[in-house]
Amino acid sequence: MAVKLVTDSTSYIDQATRDELDIKVVNLSVHFPEVSYDETEIEYEGFYKKIEQDNVIPTSSQPTIGQICEVFRKIVAAGDEVLGIFISAQMSGTYESALTARDIIREEYPDSRIEVMDSKTNCMALGLQVIEAAWAALAGKTMEEVMAIANHVRNRVRFYFVPATLDYLIKGGRIGGAAALIGSVLQIRPILYVNNGVTDVFAKVRGTRKAVEKIFAQLHNDVKTYGLKHLLVHHINDEEHGRDIAARLASLYNREVPLLSIGPVIGAHVGPGAVGVVYCTEQ
Asked: DSSP string of 186-226?
């Protein structure tokens, strides 16, 4: 009997890692007036081109309880245990749906073990929790040990990002504590972060360049105090800017810094042009 990891598509874990660690993913989806797509089935660049050309922000929806049940069922039917780690419960109903799916499968398989965690974040701040937990599971750790490792990462991971515009966050209703920024002076760039499951304001500076420097300064202070375990860069349809940031961080910390694109569900709420840094400290 082994622990198997399940997460959702907003973790943006690359396919090679998912295959290597046997991580199962349930899809969130995006909906235009005329068509809907599962998040992993749509090409990112084409998606962002469409929302800019059509001047429309698609809605998104969580996986159905049935879809989550199907994934859970296959794992427990094979005799394994399930640990599901999902996008913040305050950002999506995916976590609540997973709890319902857990209860359904437990009725079908009374001896099964299914645990569900709220990551309290999204993107690779969620993904790192899943990856670390999956490595522990692959090493034969118990459910309690695997959950403790995921929780360890959850308490130490940080995600700071700079949107190119607030329009998408405002229209999508996902701006949280950043609502106070509406009407701010032109060229003021907010640095946003995920604060206990909700998008909030870390700082406001003038210009994107200064915003990135502010993130670098926060990263440096945290690394100096707590050490550095993981470091990566996210971008939303702005690979060139993301690559520049990743290259600078790679030089500063003498390590490879992955660059990962954010997909349609989160991207539609934050908007093209955003860049961000995800890191996890040692302590």
From this structure: TTEEEEEEEETTEEEEEEEEESHHHHHHHHHHHHHHHHHHH
Check if the beta carbon of residue 44 is closer than 8 Å to that of residue 265.
no
How many folded domains does the chain comprise? 2
pTM: 0.93
pLDDT tens, 220-239?
999 999 999 999 999 999 99
d(CA 65, CA 189): 38
Q: Which pLDDT value is given to residue 183? A: 43
Residue 135: alpha-carbon gap to chain centroid: 18
Domain hosting 116: range is: 3-28+63-154
> In the 8-state DSSP scheme, what is residue 257?
-
Q: Is residue 265 part of a domain?
A: yes
User: Which of 128, 154, 180 finishes a domain?
Assistant: 154
pLDDT higher than 50, residue 205? yes
Q: What is the pLDDT of residues 251-280, one digit of tens each?
A: 999 999 999 999 999 998 898 999 999 999
| Rounded Cα–Cα distance for residues 71 and 69 (Å) | 5
